[in-house]
Amino acid sequence: MDNNPKWHYKLAPESEPSKRAWKKQLIADWLTAQKIKYKPYMTKVELMQLVFTHLPPKEFIVDKVATKYNIEIVRIPVKHCVSNPIELGWAAVCSPEHASAYFAHIYKQEEIFKIADKNVEAIENDLIDSEDDVGDDTLNDDEVDDLTAFF
């Protein structure tokens, strides 16, 4: 996903934190809506500190809509040319003499990904545990349940 459009990062209303520019009463109303206890005599700075300690997790509108349709949004770092060659593409469009270097780079990256995929397929069977390989390093069901409590 391209990192430039602002609507990709629009927060859902329930996950929007209060803003520093808000008046004290609006911050207090936000805290009340979030069911966070505060004292009425607290200053605006103290209320904002309380807000920052109870920030809701970021939830984007695009992610909610995508989840509804069983789509996974993948966000990549800005200017990440290997996974997002559009940056190189724009540079190639600006000067046609660089187009051949652009395409050569893309073909090279595709080959690297193909080789990596073949290597993973080659060792995939060794990585998959079979019932015959049960040994001391294999977790039993109780141990798995104990571990899932942490997540």
Outline the low-pLDDT stretches. Answer: none
N-to-C order of helices and strands: HHHHHH
Number of strand segments: 0
Number of domains: 2
Structure description:
The chain has 151 residues and is mostly helical. The chain contains 6 helices and no strands.
Topology:
Elements: H1 24-33, H2 44-53, H3 61-68, H4 86-94, H5 99-127, H6 141-148
Helix pairs in contact: 1-2, 4-5
Quick structural gist:
Helices cover 49% and strands 0% of the residues. The protein has 151 residues and is mainly alpha-helical. It is flat.
Quickly list its features.
mainly alpha; 151 residues; 2 domains
